[in-house]
Specification:
about 100 residues; alpha+beta; 3 helices; about 35% strand
């Protein structure tokens, strides 16, 4: 299993409503991309200063499935329409989750 983890920092002034729109669009992807085994995402709950603003964790059966997700038009649409306009920075890692 491959786990895909994304952390995002939003542009200054990004509203909670915009973040909710991002989360809603991402949560639709498992119904559109069958290679997604699971997908969870949401804003940081604010426990520690300096944390990233938002995280996504998705799981796939294989690297090939993760690649299909990464190249899928619906995934790219969510990035282009919802994430990119308000994203200041991101960190991404994929690892073998056993």
């Amino acid at each position: 299993m491959v786990r895909h983890v994304v952390c995002i920092r939003w542009n200054e002034g990004t509203t909670p409503e915009r973040v909710d729109e991002v989360a809603a669009a991402l949560r639709e992807l498992p119904g559109l991309i069958p290679e997604i085994r699971s997908l969870n995402c949401g804003p940081d709950v604010g426990v520690n200063a300096g944390n990233w603003d938002f995280a996504l964790v998705a799981e796939f059966d294989s690297i090939d499935d993760q690649t299909i997700y990464g190249d899928h038009p619906e995934h790219k649409r969510v990035i282009t329409d919802f994430i990119a306009p308000i994203r200041a920075d991101r960190a991404v890692v994929q690892y073998d989750a056993g």
